[in-house]
Design goal:
Helix content is 37%, strand content 17%. The protein contains 13 helices and 9 strands. Strands 3-2-1-4-5-6-9-7-8 form a 9-stranded mixed sheet, sandwiched between helices. InterPro entries: Inosine/uridine_hydrolase_dom (IPR001910), IUNH (IPR023186), Ribo_hydro-like (IPR036452). This is Nucleoside hydrolase. Keywords: Glycosidase, Hydrolase.
């Protein structure tokens, strides 16, 4: 039995690998890609999403573009570069696949309503498109079976803060780009599992030399594409986990047994001068703010199991 999936994304190097991983998983049926402004503006992420589909020979998946600006703030500067093309300067050909006439939000609503109760969403970028879809159909949470998202930092490990990806000391990039949208989605009632920087940037996500060599030596173009992305990241002084972050959202859907989660009360800071976009988790034993939204946050990962799933999937 396959699971139907919408991927909301901002490709981006790690989005690209997550999309490929999902396309290659026989247990997933990708019904739509929606492009959001995040790693790049949405007009460029929509192009890159279609480049990745064409790399994989996939021409039947609709792609729709979200707005160029976040809902709740001006689009911020990203301190991390994904290359001139947003795909690690891999020079994939310009796509010939057409873009949907519908907006990303409308496509999300339409696909969910066509598959109500039997559809999941993987959110790999800022939550702008999901928040706009909620404006069109506030009942979406009860129609979606599961949502996984790369979103936030919850304090389970020190990497939640030492590897902060937003442009302040305590924020994660996806939430930082559109904190108001994230606050809306957190509170909407989705069956949400959030993968934060606590685990997504853990050193154990990094590829070992043996795993990297499997990608580089593979006959599969998508595996060699992944190896090129890792070389790009390492060449700029970063670790290979930067290329693999978003794939954790796919793994959390397909192999939830690899994830340890904690149910926490958590909200998004939408006004702080130093903390804009911070995901504030209330895990106090006493006087806890139980009016804050409840979500499942990943606190630990079977990293070897995840990396086996990733590399095996890319070279298969």
């Amino acid at each position: 039995m396959t699971s139907k999936l919408i991927i909301d994304c901002d490709p981006g190097i790690d989005d690209a690998l997550a999309i490929i991983l999902a396309l290659k998983d026989p247990g997933l049926e990708i019904l739509a890609l929606t492009a959001v402004t995040g790693n790049l503006p949405s007009d460029r992420t929509a192009v890159n999403a279609r480049k990745v589909l064409e790399l994989m020979g996939e021409r039947g998946t609709p792609v729709a573009q979200g707005p160029l600006q976040p809902i709740s703030r001006e689009y911020p500067h990203d301190p991390f570069s994904h290359g001139d093309d947003g795909l690690a300067n891999t020079a994939l050909p310009e796509p010939t696949l057409p873009l949907e006439d519908r907006s990303a939000a409308q496509l999300i609503v339409d696909v969910i309503n066509d598959n109500a109760g039997d559809i999941a969403i993987a959110v790999l970028g800022p939550m702008t498109n999901i928040a706009l879809a909620l404006e069109l159909d506030p009942d979406l949470p009860r129609k979606v079976s599961r949502m996984t998202a790369i979103a936030g930092s919850f304090g389970f490990t020190r990497y939640a803060w030492t590897q902060a990806t937003g442009d302040n000391p305590v924020s994660e990039w996806n939430v930082y780009v559109d904190p108001g949208a994230a606050a809306t989605v957190f509170a909407a009632g989705f069956a949400l599992t959030a993968v934060g920087l606590d685990v997504a940037t853990h050193p154990d996500v990094n590829l070992s030399p043996e795993r990297f060599d499997r990608l580089a030596a593979s006959g599969r173009p998508e595996a060699r594409f992944a190896a090129d992305i890792v070389r790009f990241v390492r060449g700029r002084g970063y670790q290979s986990y930067c290329a693999l972050i978003d794939s954790l959202a796919i793994a959390a859907l397909v192999h939830p047994e690899l994830m340890t989660t904690q149910r926490i009360h958590c909200a998004v800071e939408t006004r702080g001068e130093l903390t804009l976009g911070m995901t504030v988790a209330d895990v106090r034993n006493h006087h806890r703010w139980e009016h804050l939204p409840l979500l499942e946050a990943v606190s630990d990962v079977d990293f070897d199991g995840f990396l086996d799933y990733l590399v095996d999937g890319l070279v298969r």
